[in-house]
Each structure stands twice: as structure tokens, then as C-alpha cells.
Amino acid sequence: MAKAALTISRILHAGYVFECEGTRIAFDTIFENPFSRNCHAFPDVRFDLDEIRRQRFAAVFISHFHDDHCSLESLDLLDRATPLYIYCIFDELFDMVRQLGFTEVRQLKLNAPVDVGPFQVVPREAMDADVDSMFQVRAAGLNVLNVVDSWIDQGTLAQLAREGPWDMVLWPFQTMREIEVLSPARAAAAPQALPEEWLDQLKVLDPRYVVPSSCQFLQEPWSWYNRAFFPITYRQFALEVGAALPEARVVRLDPSVSVLLDATSLRPAPPLDWVVPVGEQDVDYEYEGNAAPPGTADIARRFAPLTAEQDARVMAYCRSGLPEKYGEVEASSEYFDQPRVWRLSVYDHTGGATHFRYLLQPDGTVRADDGAAPLGWTTEIPATKLYAALELGESLTSMYMRINDAVFDADTERDLEQADVVDDPLIRCLFSDTFGAYQAAQLRRLLGR
User: Fold this and answer.
1) Residue 321: which CATH number?
2) pTM score, two decimals?
3) What is the C-alpha separation between 106 and 331, in angstroms, rounded?
């Protein structure tokens, strides 16, 4: 008699297909390369979209609303009768998915099991419960934890320990430097080692198998982020986890790769035929600290010019929309509790910059600055990326924004030591009180076809 077994297949990033007893479910289904506008699969793959349209899943689970986990353009490839289970506290996302035509769209609740054939899927609380979740998957007497790309607090860790033993943990193996690359001149290089608490937590979970999960991407081929964004290599992950958990086995699953897990073994299984590897797959990350970032002018030259209408949209926002918005969003640190002069520099496709100087008041009022007072904050951004944020829902991590890449007077430098880079006025105006802009832009395109 055959052993009860579970097939686990990697799609990309945090995407997986689980199959047991003829039932298939999927997680965080991204079928795009690049995804999130500039995340290029690493190792490289292409997707057979016609074959994906023929796939049928008993359910799809989405851990959170970020566009590298919940993309309407990827969901658009699925049969509209597919039950979708989404962890999100915002009703707007569910409305958008229903507008796409899905008839069974359900909101996941933490610790509330969902039964699908032989599977039981339990959403577990991530460190930021307002944003994301993790998944516990039980089937065939096996117990798998999909941490997605969240962090685990001590309370949840204790709960997960009680849910053991664990056969496999899909662990997010990268410490992304999405904040540090915004202000590289002021950021220290990251240690090329796993956070100590990750190893401690893995020891508590004590799984049989550990998969380095999430973060299978690079940015554009020319991007300096490719040497500065990801400090951890697959090799380093395997070395450190192997040393911390000598009884466990570290298993790399590249896109399309499948394994058959049972109570005593892990064996290769036929790959997903609709995820097609392209080129060398045994690749690894390279990290070079802050990697000598090019100037924003050089980066802006990489992008196509805006149309006259698009450029007018960007300039109008800088002149009027942004000053109007500023008073509606608050900073989290005290740096802007006194008047500050802010210079916003917008670079076109030739590398030429248009500079805007604002005097930011603590009460949220903004007026144009005459240039007499010293600068207290600077922001640089390619015009194409600012337009993409305004109209296409592009997220912060792909915008190549550069913050405080200048030397200020001594008092300002001292105050900046306590400031938070994400208190940047442009970041706050674009992102502080918006939800689902990326998906909303996708929905407009999809419904407009």
C-alpha cells in the first residue's frame, strides 16, 4: 500500500501548488515575469499562459494584499469559479476581485481552519497582522508551515511550537534592504548572515525540511539594486540553517520544481509543466554592500520619456497636488515638528532635473520656498516613476527614489540622525493613506480591454 504523500511545487516567489489525493490548492499565485513591474524571476522562467488557463484548483489562498502576492493580472488567468481565500482587512480588495468576475471570494480569519478535500489550511498570525498572514497546511498526516515573507513574534512562535511536529517549513530567507537603498549614503552595509532570531525560531519549530522561500527575483538587468538589495545567498542560508538544525535538510525549490513529501522521505516529483525554466537555474545572489549607486539622473535615462500629457500630470502634482496632500498625512518622527525646507528633484528621460523647493510647516501647510533658508530634506525621483506611482499604482520598492543624498548643515545633520527615511514627504503623500493602488490600476486595464 502506497504511503500517504503530499506533492509540493514551486511557482515563483511565495507561490506554491500543493496536491494530495487528486486535490490541488495553490498559494500566492503569481504567473508574471516580471511581476510588480520590475521584479524579474531569479532564476529566470517563463509562464505558459494558455496552459495556466486550463489549470483547475480546488482553492487558491492569498496571504496578503501586496502586489507580489495578489496580482489581478495573474488571477485573471484562473477559472472564475475557483474559490479564493484572501487574508486582508480591507473590503476594497474583495470588491475588486469580485469585479474581475470571481464568484467565491472569502475573507480568511486568523486561526480559523479552511477544509478543502484532504487539506486543512489554517491562517496564522504574522508580526504585522494588519497586513499579512502565514499558512499552516495539514494533509496526508503531514504538517507544513508556509511563513510566506512575514516575521514571527514570540507569541505566535509559542503557538506554532504547540502545533508541531513540523514536517516542512517554507521560510523567507532574505533580509531585503528596501529601505536602505532609498538612502544608501546614510545606510550601513548589511551583515551577510541570517538574523539570529530566525535561527532560534527554526530551532523551536525543528522541522524535518526547510525550504528557502520568497524573494526569487532581481530588478532590471542594469539595476544597482541587484548587488545591494539581497544580502543572503542560497549557499549562506544552507550553511547557517544546516549548522543550527543538523537533523534537518535544507531543500532549494526553484520555480517549477516539485517534491513528494511523506512521513519518512522527500523525493523528486514531475515539475509543473506550465512554469518553464529559462537558462541557468543554479544561480545565486551577489551582494556588494551599497554597491556604488549611480546618480538619479543616470537611472532616469534608463526609462522611456513621458508623453506631454503624462509629464503635465507629474508637474501639476508637484506644483499643487502634493502641497494640498501634505497636510493630510503625518510624520511618525519629530523631525518635521519644526519648519523644514524640502527640495524635490524630478528627473526626465534625458537626466535633466526640475527642482521644487517647499517650506514645510509643522501644521501641515506648505508654500514655495524662496531659496534663502538652508535645506532640511531632499528627494530625487525619475519622472517616469513618479507618474507610475500616481497612475499605475507602482510601489515604493521599484521607484528608485533617492532621499537625503546631500550634506546638510551641522544642526540638520544632527537632527537627521533621529529621522525615519520613510517620513519622506513624497513617500507619505503617495503611500500613507492609499490602499490597493496597484490592483486598482490593474482592474482598470483589465475591465477596459
Assistant:
1) 3.30.1050
2) 0.95
3) 35
